[in-house]
Write a structure and sequence with these properties.
By secondary structure, the protein is α/β, with parallel strands linked by helices. It is about 35% helix and about 15% strand. A seven-stranded mixed sheet has the order 3-2-1-4-5-7-6, with helices on both faces. The protein is globular.
Length: about 250
């Protein structure tokens, strides 16, 4: 079973936690017929979740005219990959070259580095998923691909293991790779550092790199990795008004 993720929603008040628990009950006890639930999920998406969806939507729009693949570093449950699959189906349904590649241990954090600080959520195994979850996620991604043309061509890859090792293996096997969008949600220093370093020669003008935890005292390693590989003064780090933590840079 998945371990409890330490520190999730730490900034939420007791009232907000209670309200979210109530929303969960309302969702679980919904009187809407099951066959209509998927068409009515907007009833249950709260402001915070909707803000992230809007951010990812704007991020994807920035690469529509940029050649290359999309990589996500830190997949966990796979919502971001799933959304990117649907956005590809909306904006460029025939672009079979726009592959989505997700890297994750699917077992939670590996051993943290000293540069990751000492917040209580920084511990080995945190943010794990349920056993064999990647197979379930693959089934979901298969469904989303079926909603678009040329669905007989699989356009995603889930790569399980230590991304510090797996990214090098992937790029050695696929040296032609151009990275149009890389999204970092590792939280930790070492995998962020190693993957940023590995993809750097595969970026092009217009490539976008997104981050989930820059300037976050709970996860200092992500910012330190960016600072050491690309430099904080080399790019404008941008954000969107409705999403306080997520940010991105554009290679120019």
């Amino acid at each position: 079973m998945s371990k409890k993720s330490l520190g999730d929603n730490d900034l939420a008040s007791d009232e907000e936690h209670a309200a979210r628990a109530n929303l969960g009950e309302l969702f679980g006890n919904s009187p809407i017929p099951q066959q209509e639930m998927l068409q009515n999920l907007g009833l249950y998406i709260n402001r915070k979740s909707l803000s992230r969806l809007l951010f990812l939507h704007e991020l994807y729009k920035k690469i529509i005219d940029v050649h290359g693949v999309v990589m996500e570093f830190g997949v966990r449950w796979g919502q971001t990959l799933s959304l990117f699959t649907s956005l590809r189906g909306i904006y460029e349904p025939y672009n079979y070259n726009r592959k989505l590649i997700g890297f994750d241990t699917f077992e939670g954090f590996l051993e943290p580095n000293r540069k990751d600080g000492n917040a209580r959520r920084i511990c080995k195994g945190n943010y794990s998923v349920t056993k064999d979850y990647e197979g379930y996620l693959a089934d979901l991604l298969d469904y989303h691909e079926q909603e678009s043309p040329i669905s007989h061509i699989q356009k995603y890859s889930l790569i399980k293991g230590d991304a510090s090792v797996k990214i090098t293996e992937y790029l050695d096997k696929n040296p032609e790779t151009i990275v149009a969008l890389a999204y970092f949600d590792f939280d930790l220093y070492k995998p962020t550092y190693d993957c940023l370093k590995a993809i750097r020669p595969h970026l092009t003008k217009g490539s976008v790199i997104g981050f989930d935890e820059l300037n976050d005292s709970n996860f200092p390693g992500e910012t330190l990795a960016l600072k050491e590989i690309l430099g904080l003064d080399s790019f404008s780090i941008k954000r969107m008004p409705y999403c306080p933590m997520s940010s991105y840079i554009v290679i120019e």
